[in-house]
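Suppose you are handed only these lines of text.
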Amino acid sequence: MTSTSVQAQDAVGAPPEQTRFKAQVYEPVQHDAATTQALARFNNDRYAMFIHWGIYAQAGGVIRGKRFYGASEWLMQRSKTPSAEYLALAEEFNPVDFDAKAWIRTIKAAGFRYVVITAKHHDGFAMFKSAASKHNIVDGTRFGRDPLKELAEAAKAEGVGLGFYYSQYQDWTEPNGGGNDWEFDPKKTDFDSYFNTKVVPQVTELLTNYGPLREIWFDTPGPMAPEYSKRLRELVKKLQPDCLLNSRIGNGLGDYSSPSDSEVPPASLVHGGDWESVFTHNRSWGYSAFDNDFKSTDTLIELLATSASRGGNFMLNMGPDGRGRFPEGAQSRLLKVGDWLKVNGESIYGTTRSPLPQTPWGVATQRGKRLYLHVLDRPADGVIRVPGLTEAVTKVTLLAGGAALPFKQGDGLAITLPKDATPSDDLVIAVDTREPVAARRDQGAVLSPVYGRQPLDVADAVLSEGVGLEAVKTQLSVDDTRKYYTVVGLDDPAKSIAWTVQVERPGDYHIDLQYSATAAQAGREGVVEMNDQKRAFGVVETGKIERRKPVFLAFQPVGILHFDKPGRYTVAIRPQTAGQELFAIRALYLTPAN
Ligand code: H79
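From them, the structure of the protein bound to H79 can be written out as follows.
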């Protein structure tokens, strides 16, 4: 077998106190023939549905009358409920409204190309018939049916791909499984026995009884030794050579990368490779009875288009309730994304990543000699600019309806938007060129006063010698761990972080810095520089970054930079004196200040 390693993996399962990690770079990897072919289809699909469904759906985030906000599938762990009490949920669980055909109809109408459903989450309860554990939906509930079987048949009939999520390390209702330290003594658990008597037989069942699978989505390998990841990999590939494995199989043995939960990797870290971002529609993966915070249709389209523009898949999760129904707040929005895809799907499915640098109006995808511009943010003057686009443009059309749009090509491309387009659409413009538009991603972010605040993320910065990029995991969202990026080593005036910006029109821009800083960093002084303009600032304390606490990020105004003519500029930050690291910066923002 050729090398299958996917780089340094995600922190899920790492010690809970760990907050900082080496930033992962996404790079192409060599695979065997079956995997290569499966990945080609994977990359063509781009949009997938993720479903978290288990007996936790019956509880909906509430146990013993207490609500748990955020991830409802973690209810047992968060409430430290003993196995026997938790498993009583199975006695109530009777999803009589479950209708596999209706699910697949919705999935198809919403534009998803494949669906991945939890076969077994961390609670250990299997949502399929299993001879390896009585804690399964067929033998352990009065429902008595195998929903995965019904779903596999319905998916096959409609040509929708199928994959299973399987928690291979955490299993809270098994004394030898990982993760339950409130009931079992971790020193006495025999993981080898758990692995051999439950994981191996259940994964075998999943790969044998449900037809061809697109992927097995493993999660939280934790401290699992390499031999187990290796055995799992060999088992899956022996049974189905073209079933893909995500990187959370552990120990670098996946076929493709799973970024952190709720993360689309920064464009600058993607140098190719295969990956699939996962987000949940509201704030929980499993059904929550009191969470109706569903992302808007526009936000979902933006996440999908952004993932595609960086060459990856977007897998959106939703948690059906205890009766087997998709929450209405999710379903209606998903179907609207489906309507958008019916018209604009050409700009998503089968496309490759954007050749363009960061542009203020949105993102791009590409298919040979056609470039798709996803206009997520309308310019005030109605003109979409693509600086530096030198390939000869033959035609510019609105993907919806095909109307030709007026354009000018000189120092870049300028397209005039129709005045009557509805402001809330992700408008897609198709740009046809004589030659494929070549990659020019390093040209720097585009700044123009016709847009509002523009972020310059540290992940996209040029770091001087001695400064490194780090990923931070913290409760960026109050009830969920999220990842963002910051730098380390910015502790001396000789060191800096810098961004290249392409200024479209001269003007003034306000600078704001977004960062966190500890008490020891308070009072440190830095400077934002652009040519001979220097804007000094002092650092304020916001607190420590902790994995299990919300992080407070200051948003600090620094001053104004004046750009006197169009062109490329470098904006840099450096400390004024040697000493402590300046701060944990996340981004610099530039906002038109005229
Ligand atoms: O299956 C979904 C999550 O349950 C799973 N991955 C996605 C796809 C996942 N496993 N571990 N984690 C996510 C990270 C765990 C975060 C936690 Fe918490 C912080 C567990 C307890 C504190 C977030 C907040 C979840 C419960 C409370």
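What can we learn from it? Confidence is low (pLDDT under 50) at residues 1-14. The pocket of H79 is lined by residues 12, 52, 70-71, 73-74, 78, 219-220, 261, 278, 285, 479-481 (CB under 6 Å).
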